[in-house]
Amino acid sequence: MATVSANPVIVAHATEHDHHEPQSFWRKYIFSEDHKTIAKQYLISGILWSIIGISLSVMFRLQLGFPNLKLGFLRPVLGSWINETDKLDPDFYLALVTMHGTIMVFFVLTAGLSGTFSNFLIPLQVGARDMASGFLNMLSYWFFFIASVVMFSSMFIETGPAAGGWVIYPPLSALPQAHKGSELGMTLWLISMALFIVSQLLGGINYITTVINLRTRGMSFSKLPLTIWAFLLTAILGLISFPVLLSAALLLIFDRSFGTSFYLSEIYIKGEALPNVGGSPILFQHLFWFLGHPEVYIVILPALGMTSEIIATNARKPIFGYRAMIASMMGIAFLAFIVWAHHMFVTGMNPFLGSIFMFLTLIIAVPSAVKAFNYITTLWRGNIRFTPAMLFSIGLVSFFISGGITGLILGNSALDIQLHDTYFVVAHFHLVMGAASAFGLLAGVYHWFPKMFGRMMDEKLGYIHFWLTFIGIYLVFFPMHYVGIAGFPRRYYAFTSYDFTKNIFADMNAFISLAAIFTFVAQWVFIYNFVNSLIRGKRATQNPWKSNTLEWTTPIVPGHGNWVGEIPAVYRWPYDYSKPGAKDDFIPQNVPYSQTPESNLPHENELISLESEIEAQNLNDQFKQPH
Amino acid sequence: MVYIVALLAVVFLGLAAMVVSKMAAVVKTAGGPKEEGEIGLSNKINGALFVVFFVVGLIAAVWSFMYARQFFLPEASSPHGRRTDNLFWISMAMITAAFVLTNALLFIFAWMYQHREGYKAAYYPENHKLELIWTIVPAVIMAVMVFTGWRAWRDIMSEAPANAQVFEIVGKQFNWIARYPGVDNNKLGNFNYKLIDNNNETGIDYTDESSFDDFVSTSELHIPANKPVLLKIRARDVLHSVFIPHLRVKMDAVPGMPTRFWFIADKTTDEMRNLTGNPDFTYEIACTEVCGQGHFSMRIRLIVEDEASWEAWCKQQKPLLTSTPELATRIPANLKAKAAKYLPADATAAPSDSSTALIPRQGGVSVATTTLR
């Protein structure tokens, strides 16, 4: 390997390639193979989707909080989904909750979060010129884009989009005659999701390959930033679980269109006994949740990874328990595959299975608890700088705890009997995976905005955005637990049909809706800040947060190939903050131990002898230049 | 039980205050000068806001809980429900403690260790003892929670006692149909979904003599109090889920896969009216698995009465065969005599054709034609 770098032919070849032809607009900004551009495409798409997804939730919160409100003013947007009496159509209510769930889980928190930051940070933090395959990476985004177009168009067809809940349980989703939302809308949902899964797989393969193969000299796995560990494990989770969802969706397409009976058995509907026998709706649920549960970790792990990075940087302290963090993420990633049936305790599956899945589910709480404790200990005796990213990271930890602990109750099958499919569940998962992941996304944007766009976001607006959102989200989801304890089932258009829900909590539901609208409005502070900073933001410096990781050694706006000249070698872990004896409170990963004799720990002095070995390596950057 | 939660919240507020004072003592030492001074007032404000948020949030949480408590469901009307309720509130107390403690540490550390000029953070990358402790402590607590929960789950999901009174509840878009095992033999007859039509909404199979006296209702389900009740649960079209909030009962209704749930209702509807002070109180069965447009209104009333009056009520009911004599054509010839007592005199006299009874079972086509509703 070392000889390759000395080869003059290749060096000459490299200089030849140094001057790129200016790329056409299309290649540079649209069909780009540059990971940074693709990351920005994901980010912009994610932001647009989140505006749509949250708007939908505001619409159904209006219905739930103010059941007597005349919604005629929404007619310009919703058309005939507002009926003659100015009420929201009950079918469309279900379409709203379904699309809200689908959009937020898949299009915002999977594509928007992991798509953005895996793409942006993996090459920059492991020290690579780009992803292993720029072309597959581009395909990944464009498959996502087509999936988005299909999903978006499904909202404008006459029968409306899919409406059986984001879990699309058959037979409801399999039988067009059962529900308006199971007609063309469901077909489009399935097509869109199939394309989305292709996109995820292309992306995931790329992330994994890049992390394993394209790490720079010296970047061993034990020196990887926790962000990269999180992205790697997320990609592995996705790669294993998304194909299962694809199979579930394919079998559902067969049942819908080709007369098979995978999920259908003994059904009499609309005056007709269907010929299908022998299928099982429970099979679909097993397949769905085999993805569905890892999916919540696909959503939260990148957020936790970025939080680790941001908290360590801004607390000016090494992340506490680096190895424990990796181990707990691995534990979570492994256990994520064997807890899925806790979503199915009361589906009628064998109670023995319920027992097994309860045990496994509560085990996953242990690594999660370890992570929370490690974050808290990282703050302890730190020297904390509250950047907006830091605020959002602390908020994330708070949500992760507050939402996570109720998982101990819901994971307990005996207690789940009463709470299953009530608002208690809604409150639980919105805090622990929804709000927490969204905060991870926002923290990431605030933290890496300077690297993405070369400008700083406005800090004051960031503070305002954080406090309004943090308070708003707690105001929405904390009271929701009460509604759940009172037994209110989810996905109800109205609570007027039952005595046990009829005359209570109307004010609470109105309060929750108001808080939701408040939180939604607060997000425009972010949108404004984002757009305004893009254009008018203060110019960023090279390393504005005084961070240790490699992305801050690139030029302020890294070009194609990321580093000018050689990619730096890595000698130390990414968390040498406030090291005793060091003159600064941070030592970047590319600073060799031989340059910091004043702060080296005894065992690190021994590593100095390995430095020449690291430098001699030239694993992947054979051209020593951006290629 | 609910007081524990409130009490713990207060206790941990106190504990949090203690932590603050202890930690404040620890961090008295301030270091030398530091270079950049860009970090100013807003850092202090953000740090302080975390503490303000925590204190105000905690007060709001306690207050809102005290307010919301009155609307929680009344004490469970089933022994298993009281058991899970107990477990729920014990778990709630435990997680509330964890919630307050960890959030307190998070916010208070954020405030205490905010940036100060010249101070250098501690280089404290790991502490295996500490990490071991907080791996094991949650693991032990969770093991206890799992074990108690598992025992409750095992008992609730065990086979129904042999003397359990059986009922069937069938979900369809968008109501429930209750089927009773009958006025005489107390056995549910067989069913077959291909036999469903407007006259026979649950697809009762009249080639089974146990079904002759079965009767159905779409408005209420009457069950005896203080006696094990076994609900056999089915769905006709899509997934539904039987939810009896006051009894803490929930089980999905799955087309093609009958499910069940057994329980004891030990407070009659009348007793509940006295207990809740609500003369109109009634138990209700809801649907908790999204099933389409009418999902939110699949109500059927559940009447719990003492066994004697329940039996008396049952005796007054008319088997489906009696109210819908057309179904008699489906009875095979050899059982006609046994069915006779449930049929009006003229219906028994009607000519019987055994072939008509068999067609629906074989093909299902003749019943399933075009009876759109």
TrEMBL record, chain A:
It is found in: Membrane. Residues 20-571 form the Cytochrome oxidase subunit I profile domain. GO terms for molecular function: cytochrome-c oxidase activity; heme binding. GO terms for cellular component: membrane. The keyword Metal-binding applies. It is a multi-pass membrane protein. One of its GO terms (biological process) is respiratory electron transport chain. Gene3D superfamilies: Cytochrome c oxidase-like, subunit I domain. InterPro entries: Cyt_c_oxase-like_su1_dom, Cyt_c_oxase-like_su1_sf, Cyt_C_Oxase_1, Cyt_c_Oxase_su1_BS. Pfam families: COX1 (PF00115). It comes from the Bacteria. Keywords: Electron transport, Heme, Iron, Membrane, Metal-binding, Respiratory chain, Transmembrane, Transmembrane helix, Transport. The chain crosses the membrane at residues 42-64, 92-122, 142-169, 189-214, 226-254, 287-308, 320-340, 352-377, 389-411, 423-449, 461-488, 508-531. The keyword Secreted does not apply. PANTHER family: CYTOCHROME C OXIDASE SUBUNIT 1. Belongs to the heme-copper respiratory oxidase family. This is Cytochrome c oxidase subunit 1.
Automatic annotation (TrEMBL), chain B:
Residues 65-160 form the Cytochrome oxidase subunit II transmembrane region profile domain. Binds a copper A center. Its EC number is 7.1.1.9. It comes from the Bacteria. GO terms for molecular function: copper ion binding; cytochrome-c oxidase activity. InterPro entries: CcO_II, CcO_II-like_C, Cupredoxin, Cyt_c_oxidase_su2_TM_dom, Cyt_c_oxidase_su2_TM_sf. Belongs to the cytochrome c oxidase subunit 2 family. This is Cytochrome c oxidase subunit 2.
